[in-house]
Write a structure and sequence with these properties.
It is built from 12 helices and 13 strands. It has 350 residues and is an alpha/beta fold. It has a 7-stranded mixed sheet, sandwiched between helices. A 4-stranded parallel sheet has the order 7-6-8-9, with helices on both faces. A two-stranded antiparallel sheet has the order 10-13.
């Protein structure tokens, strides 16, 4: 039976529409839009945050998500604007390393008002409705820093070199440091000669503070409990100028390359290593789960002043010259060849 011209056109149009519908359905179902995750970092000037982000992004992509990075460069207003931009661009989850944990509450409030879950990463955002926390026991890190130094210098004047006063972690580190030192202070073996704070964890400020404290105490300092490797670097620079580098015990945190080199040279006594590659990958697992409307698994909870927040806590390790190879190098966190290029052979990790 033959078709009329009008019927033929209608039939062809129907077939074309059907074909397009089938094609659209097949492509639409097999290639859904990837959920986008926002990663807001305080400042990439601190070496470790780039490492965190690289590990996070790699894992998120393996799980089928895209990541958008924003670097606030240590500015709270910038970080808030970046958060608002990401939320307005319809990210499905936010991972937040706040510059100021208190001011970051407004970011959480904005995100939650738009139905965007928030993961507080490494720095706990207190008194807020965050969905998850991923990080380490910061009080325990502070205690580990101080106890590592008391095993080297059980007596004498100590300088407590803290991070940014606007960072809740800096205060938690101080709490742990003082807990570990208190028995020595009570016995009169250790005296806290100075308690110094460094805005934005600035190595330059650490250098200036330590130089001043050394002068005031006539260079009679046994140990400097530096809260991270940046401030430790500033402290060691100040010690070098009065020829006390390697003679005063110095702690640190983050296992930065420069710090590992100082540890092997003997000018920094230890650094705290957090296997952040693994922790950042777990953060990606959590973020992708939340972005997809799922409930991620937690290993515990942490009270943030508003509610008990589901959490994953990472391990911490004290790294000194005896275990560099079996910790940060074995994990691929630092590169042996790079370290060897920076040191004479007798100082290479064993």
């Amino acid at each position: 039976m033959s078709l009329s011209p009008r019927a033929s056109v209608s039939h062809i149009a129907f077939l074309l529409l059907a074909s397009c519908a089938i094609s659209f359905s097949a492509h639409g179902q097999s290639s859904p839009a990837k959920p986008r995750i926002g990663f807001l970092v305080d400042s990439l000037k601190v070496e470790r945050w780039q490492t965190d982000y690289n590990s996070f992004e790699k894992r998120a992509k393996e799980l089928g998500s895209d990541v958008v990075l924003e670097d606030a460069d240590g500015n709270d207003d910038t970080q808030f604007k970046q958060a608002r931009k990401l939320i307005e661009s319809h990210v499905k989850a936010l991972v937040l390393v706040p510059h100021n944990s208190e001011k970051a509450v407004r970011i959480v409030e904005l995100a939650k008002s738009k139905g965007v879950p928030v993961i507080s990463y490494d720095r706990l955002i207190r008194n807020s409705d965050i969905d998850f926390f991923i990080g380490a026991d910061v009080v325990a890190i502070g205690a580990l820093q101080a106890s590592s130094l008391t095993s080297i210098a059980p007596k004498g004047n100590y300088i407590l070199l803290e991070g940014s006063p606007s960072d809740v972690n800096a205060h938690l580190l101080l709490e742990g440091q003082k807990k570990a030192l208190q028995p020595f202070v009570d016995r009169g073996d250790i005296k806290i000669a100075a308690e110094l704070w460094c805005a934005d964890w600035s190595p330059a400020e650490a250098y200036a503070h330590v130089s001043n404290a050394l002068s005031k105490n006539h260079n009679q300092i046994a140990a400097i409990v530096a809260s991270n490797d940046g401030t430790a670097g500033g402290a060691v620079q100040a010690l070098e100028e009065v020829k006390l580098d390697g003679k005063v015990a110095v702690s640190g945190q983050d296992a930065d390359l420069a710090a590992i080199i100082r540890v092997l040279k003997g000018t920094q006594s230890m650094t705290v290593y957090k296997p952040i590659t693994s922790l950042a990958a777990q953060a990606a697992d959590v973020a992708v789960a939340l972005a997809n409307g799922q409930k991620p698994a937690a290993t515990g909870t942490i009270a943030n002043g508003k509610h008990d927040v589901p959490a994953i806590f990472g391990p911490v390790v004290a790294v000194n010259k005896t275990n560099v190879k079996e910790t940060v190098i074995k994990d691929g966190f630092q590169n042996l060849t790079t370290i060897q290029r920076s040191l004479p052979k007798e100082q290479w990790p064993q």
